[in-house]
Amino acid sequence: MEEHCMVICGDWVCGSGNKWDFVIDKNKLARVVRLYDGIGLLELQESVLREFKLDGGKYEASLTYWPPSSSELATGITTPPVLLTNDGVISFFIQHLRVKGAMNLFVRFDEVLRDEHDDNIDDTGMGFVTPASTKQKSAFSAPPRFRTMTP
Fold it and tell me: Which residues contact 11 (CB under 8 A, 6 or more apart)?
């Protein structure tokens, strides 16, 4: 079964009295994304990046939601937002969305900082990566010569 969900861009701030507030990014605003049973975290993050027209190689999307309770609506939000960290959390969110009928996702975009040594990180599962800049060494070198001293 397919659902649609509003994704609001901004950042959570914990203020005085441990009350949480979401500050909306007034330039990026919100978008609507499609959710369905079996969608994974990576696929959802990519969908959100596409909707906001951001390059997935330059930005990463941190997705959160806030499970509202009626008492906190009047007194202020003291329960922290839930960070989506795996596929199971997304499944849990979709179940809540179907029961509640209206829940939003919140997104914060962070620029991916590339380390200058990223090329030497093994992401293939092979166990090693040969650096792009290798130093040339001679394969054979002559042993040092020793002089014998005669008395």
Answer: 22, 23, 25, 108
For strands 105-111 and 82-83, give the pairing. unpaired
Model pLDDT for residues 103-151, shown as the tens digit of each residue: 889 999 988 887 655 555 655 655 555 555 555 555 555 555 555 555 5
What span, in angstroms and rounded, lies between the C-alpha atoms of 72 and 2? Answer: 29
Contact 40, 87 (CB under 8 A): yes
Is 51 in a helix, a strand, or coil? helix
**pLDDT band for position 66 (cuts 50, 70, 90):** confident
| Rounded Cα distance, 117 and 126, in Å | 18
Distance CA 16, CA 5 (A): 30
B/e letters for 64-88, b = 16+ CB within 10 Å, e = fewer, are bbbeeeeeeeeeebeeebbebeeee
C-beta separation of 67 from 24 below 8 A? no
Q: Decide: pTM greater than 0.85.
A: no
- Give, in order, the Cα–Cα distances in Å from 88 to each of 10, 41, 109: 24, 9, 22
CB atoms within 10 A of CB 44: 22
